[in-house]
Amino acid sequence: MPDQFGSCLCGAVCFEVKGDFESFYLCHCRHCQKDTGSAHAANLFSHSATLVWKSGADAVTSFTLPDTRHTKSFCKLCGSALPIIESEGLLVVPAGCLDTEVSLAPTAHIFASSKALWEAEMDDVPEFDLLPK
């Protein structure tokens, strides 16, 4: 996989990931639902890739939920989710912060027992290319 590039919403933080991702999990746990404000988090994982902050490293901060392993890295200016290197050297990259295409298909849904109830009937929900009028 070629190197991946990403940034935050406001553009203050830019980064590069050198190397390959080993897995791509869609996590439905309650912690991920809360910190994404959505049905699940979509994170890429690598034990071998390296993270290079191209700009804005001073705008990156993180939060660890007490008494858990749940950690989130984000831009302190706009709040966008950003990569983090966890204590055991695992690189976790939120898929949505990448500016390059993710060629790896999701590996699995995890914590599926915590899926939001409204997520069950998604096949029947209309789709629009833009915000409907």
**Inertia-based shape:** globular
Radius of gyration: 15 Å
Distance between the termini: 40 Å
CATH architecture: Beta Complex
Secondary structure tally, helices: 1
How much of the residues is beta strand, in percent? 35-45%
Secondary structure: elements and pairs:
Layout: E1 4-7, E2 14-18, E3 23-27, H1 30-36, E4 41-46, E5 50-55, E6 60-64, E7 71-75, E8 81-82, E9 84-85, E10 91-94, E11 108-110
Parallel strand pairs: 3-11
Antiparallel strand pairs: 1-2, 2-5, 3-4, 4-10, 6-7, 7-8, 9-10
GO molecular function: carbon-sulfur lyase activity; metal ion binding
InterPro entries: CENP-V/GFA, Mss4-like_sf
Organism: Marinomonas piezotolerans
What do these coordinates show?
The protein has 1 helix and 11 strands; from the N terminus they run E-E-E-H-E-E-E-E-E-E-E-E. With 133 residues, it is mostly beta strands. The mean pLDDT is 92. It has one helix at 30-36; strands at 4-7, 14-18, 23-27, 41-46, 50-55, 60-64, 71-75, 81-82, 84-85, 91-94, 108-110. It has one domain (4-124): Metal Binding Protein, Guanine Nucleotide Exchange Factor, Chain A. The strands form 3 sheets. Strands 9-10-4-3-11 form a 5-stranded mixed sheet. It is globular, with a radius of gyration of 15 Å.
Features:
three-stranded antiparallel β-sheet, metal ion binding, mainly beta, five-stranded mixed β-sheet, Metal Binding Protein, Guanine Nucleotide Exchange Factor, Chain A
What would you say about this model in short?
Pfam families: GFA. With 133 residues, the protein is mainly β. It has one helix at 30-36; strands at residues 4-7, 14-18, 23-27, 41-46, 50-55, 60-64, 71-75, 81-82, 84-85, 91-94, 108-110.
